[in-house]
Design goal:
Layout: H1 2-16, H2 20-26, H3 55-66, H4 74-81, H5 83-111, H6 116-124, H7 126-163, H8 173-189, H9 198-214, H10 217-224, H11 247-253, H12 258-267, H13 273-302, H14 310-315, H15 322-354, H16 362-382, H17 386-413, H18 424-445, H19 452-455
Helix pairs in contact: 1-17, 2-6, 3-9, 3-12, 3-13, 4-5, 4-13, 5-11, 5-13, 5-17, 6-7, 6-17, 7-8, 7-15, 7-16, 7-17, 8-15, 8-16, 9-15, 11-17, 15-16, 17-18
Length: about 450
C-alpha cells in the first residue's frame, strides 16, 4: 500500500541520513524562491503572491478546502459508532488536525519556506519533495473525482425533477460533467492567485449552511410527516455495524486541508504564524460544528436506515420534493466550487516536481489546469470503478498529509538545539505519528471488503 511505502520511506531517511538536511540547505537554487524576506529576488515566481488576501477570505478558502462531499457521509459514520463515540472521535481528529497545522507553520517559520513540497525537500532532499508532491497529487485528484462523480449522478436527477423530462441529451451525466468543468471549474482554476477564490468559497460555504439548516430539527417535522423518526436512547451509545473501524479514516479525511494551508499562508495579508493559526482554528471549529450537526440531524432522522450518501436517504421520501431539490442544488454548487480550491495544490505540486526553477508562465499555468481537468473528466466518464480505487488512494495519502509528514518534517527541521529529540513536543509528535499509523492500518485491515460508495464520501 502507498501508505506503508511512504511511511517506510520516511522511516529509512530518519535512520540513515542524519545530515541530509544540511546537504539540502546547501542546494539553494531549487528552494531559494520560497525563502520569505529574500531581498535578491529579481523575477516573479508563482509563489510570490504575498500579502493580498484578507483574514476573512482566508478563512473562507481554508474552510472550503476542509469541507467536501464527506459531510454527506458523516451521518452514516455516526450510525456505525453512536453519537457519543462519534463526538469523541470528531473532537480528537479536529484537535490533531489543528496541531499538525501548527507543526507545518512552525517548520515554515524556521526555514522560511511556504510550500509543502519544499518542506519535504528541506527535510529529506528530493525524495521527501517527491513523496509530498505525489501524496498531494493522489489525494486531491481523488477528491476532485469524488466531487465530479456527485455532479455526474446528482445533476441529471435535479434537472429531471425540475423540468420533468426524460431521455434528453442534457440528461446525460457525462455531458454535464464536461459542461460544468468547462463553464465553471476551468475559469476559476485559471486564476493566478488562490485568494481570488475567496468569494466563491464564501458562497460555497453558504450553500452548505443552507444544507445544514434544511436537515435541522426545524425541518424534521416536515420530513417526519412522511417518514418515521427513529429516536431512542440507544442512539447515543450504540456501536452499530461492522464498519465502525472505518469511522476514524472517514473523519480524518473530513479535515484534509493541509496542502492548502501554506499557499493560503503565503497570500495572507500581514501574515504571521499566529494569524494563520487563527485562520486554521476558526475554519476547523466552524467545520467541526457543521459536521457534527449535519451528522446528528441526518442520523436521528433515519437512524439505522441512513445510507452512505445522506442525499440519497432523503430522496427516498420524495425525489420531487421542492426542499430536497433545493438542498441537492446547494450541495452540487458547493462541491463544484470546491474543485478549483483543491486543484491549486495539485498544480503547485506538479510545478515543484517538474519545473522547480521556472518563473511563472501563463501557458504552463493554463496547460496544467487543462490537463488535470481533462484527466479527471476521463476518469469520471470512462472508469466506473474508479471510486473504490481513489478511495483506497485517499485512505493512504491523506494520513500522510495530515499526520505523518508534518510530524516527521517537524522532527527533522526543528533544530536539536531548540528542541532535542527527547523534548516533549518531539516525543508527542512521534507518538501521534506512530499511533495514527497503527490506527489506519487497523482500520483497513479490519475488513477487506471496502465498498466504493462508503469510501468516496471521504
Amino acid at each position: 500500500m502507498l501508505f506503508v511505502s511512504l511511511h517506510a520511506l520516511m522511516t529509512v531517511f530518519l535512520i540513515i541520513s542524519p545530515h541530509r538536511t544540511e546537504n539540502a540547505e546547501a542546494n539553494l537554487p531549487e528552494s531559494q524562491e520560497f525563502l520569505s524576506g529574500a531581498e535578491d529576488k529579481k523575477t516573479t515566481r508563482f509563489t510570490d503572491f504575498e500579502g493580498k488576501t484578507s483574514f476573512g477570505m482566508s478563512v473562507f478558502n481554508l474552510g472550503n478546502a476542509i469541507m467536501g462531499s464527506g459531510i454527506l457521509g458523516l451521518a452514516y459514520a455516526m450510525a456505525n459508532t453512536g453519537v457519543i463515540l462519534f463526538l469523541v472521535l470528531l473532537t480528537v481528529v479536529a484537535g490533531l488536525s489543528s496541531y499538525s497545522i501548527h507543526l507545518l507553520l512552525k517548520c515554515s517559520g524556521i526555514v522560511g519556506i511556504r510550500a509543502y513540497e519544499q518542506l519535504g525537500y528541506r527535510a529529506f532532499g528530493t525524495p521527501g519533495k517527491m513523496a509530498a508532491g505525489i501524496a498531494i497529487t493522489l489525494q486531491n485528484i481523488g477528491a476532485m473525482s469524488s466531487y465530479l462523480y456527485i455532479v455526474k449522478y446528482e445533476f441529471p436527477l435535479v434537472i429531471q425533477a425540475f423540468l420533468r423530462v426524460d431521455n434528453e441529451w442534457y440528461m446525460n451525466g457525462n455531458y454535464l460533467v464536461i459542461i460544468v468543468s468547462v463553464a465553471v471549474i476551468l475559469p476559476l482554476a485559471l486564476m493566478k492567485q488562490l485568494g481570488y477564490l475567496g468569494y466563491t468559497s464564501g458562497f460555497s460555504l453558504s450553500c452548505m449552511v443552507f444544507f445544514l439548516i434544511s436537515v435541522s430539527p426545524l425541518i424534521l417535522a416536515y420530513i417526519c410527516a412522511k417518514y418515521t423518526l427513529h429516536f431512542t436512547s440507544s442512539c447515543f451509545l450504540s456501536v452499530g455495524r461492522h464498519l465502525t473501524a472505518y469511522t476514524i479514516p472517514i473523519l480524518a479525511f473530513a479535515f484534509v486541508c493541509h496542502p492548502e494551508v501554506l499557499p493560503i499562508y503565503t497570500e495572507l495579508r500581514n501574515a504571521t504564524k499566529k494569524k494563520m493559526q487563527h485562520v486554521a482554528n476558526i475554519s476547523i471549529a466552524v467545520m467541526y460544528g457543521m459536521y457534527f450537526l449535519a451528522a446528528l440531524f441526518g442520523y436521528l432522522t433515519f437512524y439505522g436506515e441512513v445510507e452512505a450518501e445522506l442525499l440519497h436517504t432523503y430522496s427516498r421520501i420524495d425525489p420531487y420534493d421542492t426542499l430536497i431539490l433545493c438542498v441537492r442544488v446547494a450541495v452540487l454548487t458547493a462541491v463544484t466550487l470546491t474543485v478549483p480550491i483543491v486543484l491549486f495544490p495539485v498544480r503547485r505540486a506538479i510545478q515543484q516536481m517538474m519545473f522547480p526553477n521556472k518563473t511563472f508562465y501563463w501557458p504552463r499555468h493554463i496547460a496544467i489546469a487543462f490537463v488535470l481537468l481533462t484527466f479527471i473528466n476521463l476518469l469520471v466518464i470512462f472508469a466506473p470503478n474508479i471510486l473504490g480505487i481513489f478511495g483506497v488512494i485517499g485512505a493512504t495519502s491523506a494520513p500522510c498529509l495530515i499526520f505523518i509528514f508534518p510530524a516527521v518534517f517537524y522532527i527533522r527541521i526543528v533544530p536539536k538545539e531548540e528542541e532535542p529529540l527527547r523534548s516533549t513536543p518531539k516525543i508527542l509528535v512521534s507518538i501521534i505519528r506512530i499511533g495514527h499509523c497503527d490506527l489506519t492500518k487497523h482500520a483497513f485491515g479490519h475488513d477487506s471488503r471496502i465498498h466504493s460508495s462508503e469510501i468516496i464520501n471521504t
